[in-house]
């Protein structure tokens, strides 16, 4: 009997020793349930995008750095290639479409009540990469140029640029649709085409393969609507708080990308699956060069797109009024978010 008590100790003493452990376990379970409940209270929005390049970095960073969660949302980025994001937005399969301006403008011209709430880039940016034999813009006559898809950013850039150079797409310069920017690069490498409109990292890859840049469109300072957030007006009307949170998250993501390049490049590597440090640095530099700290959609950028589609005058003014909704940008500005993330003032685009 004495041996038994020496081995196992006093029952009451054992109980007292176990109480703190039991309390800790119960508290941990309660905290887990609270955290789980908070996560479940955050609505999840599906945000589609049609390319795997640095232009999507604000969306990816917002999701990975939990900046959307800070504003009460969970965002799931979804890659939808070959313009699949357009029907997905119309059907409600996704709530947000992160896209260049031209496809969104064309959707609205086609009758869809699409609204733009933010645009990260305010000027047309892209490089024309060509074969070594092409020395000047005039040498593009009679050549074949590859763009991604009908109505895509590269298609718009090609038609706008060629038109301003006095050349007609399909006549003076042949256009082919490759289906993606990476496929356009492949067509350049295998000799099917002599020119492409390239963004990072395809421009660097083309240069490494022996091709050369003919022109940087960003140097021309053409107003544009790039890397825009779009949603259906019906969704915005029903869920204004969610849209405000999304715009706030995108705006904070831009500041994060500027402040924390190492983390931003790590996120870029995860989504693009590019591990080469040189390519990652080039992509980061290229895509942050024209990134606006205040991603407010501009009428001038939309009008450039409309002009290229033959819409001008009063029709263009009316379109801009219905297409751009900057209430959420104004809201987060009035709330002081910009002063929080940029205490020393809003920096200009690089």
Structure in words:
The protein has three domains: 2-39; 42-124 and 225-341, D-Maltodextrin-Binding Protein, domain 2 (3-Layer(aba) Sandwich); 127-220, D-Maltodextrin-Binding Protein, domain 2 (3-Layer(aba) Sandwich). The N and C termini lie far apart (83 Å). The strands form two sheets. Strands 2-1-3-10-4 form a five-stranded mixed sheet, with helices on both faces. Strands 7-6-8-5-9 form a five-stranded mixed sheet, sandwiched between helices. Helix 3 (57-64) crosses helix 12, helix 11 (240-259) packs across helix 16 and helix 14 (299-308) packs across helix 15 (313-323). 51% of the residues lie in helices and 16% in strands. It has 350 residues and is of the alpha/beta class.
Topology:
Elements: H1 2-8, H2 11-41, E1 44-49, H3 57-64, H4 67-70, E2 74-79, H5 85-91, E3 96-99, H6 101-109, E4 114-123, E5 127-130, E6 144-147, H7 153-164, E7 174-177, H8 181-189, E8 195-198, H9 202-208, E9 212-216, E10 223-232, H10 233-238, H11 240-259, H12 261-272, H13 277-289, H14 299-308, H15 313-323, H16 327-334, H17 337-341
Parallel strand pairs: 1-2, 1-3, 6-7, 6-8
Antiparallel strand pairs: 3-10, 4-10, 5-8, 5-9
Notable traits:
17 helices; D-Maltodextrin-Binding Protein, domain 2; globular; 3 domains; 10 strands; 5-stranded mixed sheet; disordered N terminus; alpha/beta; 16% strand; 350 residues
